[in-house]
Task: structure prediction
Amino acid sequence: MNKKYKEEMNEIYASEELIQNTIDKINLKNRKTSFEVIKKVALGTAAMLMLSVTTYAAVTGVFSSWIDKKLKDSISGGLYTYRIPQIDIESEDAEKMNEEIKEKYGEYYNEAIKHIEEGFSITGEVDYKAYVNGDILSVVAYRTVHDDVFYSTYNININTGKKVENKELLEMKGLNEEMVEKEIIAYMEEIVKSAKYEEMTESEIKEIQEYLLKEVYETKIDENSQFYLSNENHLCVVANEYVMAGAGKYERLYDLEEHKLVEGQYNF
Amino acid sequence: MNKKNVEKIVRKYADLVYRVAYTILKNKSDAEDIFQDVFMKVCTENISFMSEEHEKAWLIKVTKNKCLDFLKKSCNKNKEELDENLVKEESNSNQYVVDEVMKLPEKYRVIIYLFYFEGYKISEMSQILEINESTIKSQLVKARELLKESLREEF
Result:
């Protein structure tokens, strides 16, 4: 029976037509995704402004981890970090920030637990970085999904317990929203124009660039933009949120002064 | 994933994924849909694997899960009847062993396929299917008995 079963099963196979159709579909999807990535990078590009350097002072006791776990993927056996911050300052603003963090990132944690229970792969991690510069605590929480990273920033005065608004951060550096906006747009233009557009004709590239630049010029820096002070007290703009069909948002940290990514690299 | 890698992975595992899907669904058209879903997932989500064995086991598991999801969504009496008819229509008259295996309940079909065709050990099947080893052993024994009865031969 064993031999016969093997012989017969060998007669059941994927047809060349099915294989080729599948390869074509995947390549088409990847090409679309590649287009979206170019678009997302250009649109979601955040600017990092290095404006002054002061000594980084690590202060403990103003933040901690609400959740700090390593989750084991049920398929690969790999370990995934789930570290969610909390601000340990007694104030109304801190409480609101903690509620937001727990609601948003707690959901991702619960989702990962569910995936493990149901035997699916964990698709990402949650982690954070926290920096104290003078009186200001900046918390940068982030979630990775495959190769994408999505950030949320929180800035709070550790002495007054008050949220530090974007306007205050900008004023500290002698900037305003318009100035930052110009910086970001200039940088995005450079990214869009210097990107490698693989397997596209000149007219396709031109069309994509025009399309991307049109949206680049609509970039707005406002109270919803996500700023934070890095460990070197650099003012950073983390991301703008863009919602595109099936694409969501895509975020990177940039150093505008040095014209390079803070971490990672483009995948044009 | 670049074009070269897409082609490489699809061609390498095409028959495996198709056979697992067909074994569970007993229907070529549905197996083809699942086939495309599985490869779309692995080639567009940039999933990284620790080894070739891990990659193969992952594909089997995802194919099985996708097939079961598909059956959950579409399974009803009429569908079952339709599937039975399709199997009869599609069957090659020479494939009597496969035909008999296909008549077994789904849980036995996959185990038979992985054990006899892919050559997996019980412990390996236990990991891939997330079923404990003793259950797999007993299902294998039961499947053999059912097949012995239907094929009327020793194996």
User: Anything to note?
Assistant: Helices of chain B lie at 3-25, 28-44, 52-74, 77-90, 96-102, 106-117, 122-129, 133-151. Residues 85-89 of chain B have pLDDT under 50 and may be disordered. Chain B touches chain A through 46 residues (CB under 8 Å).
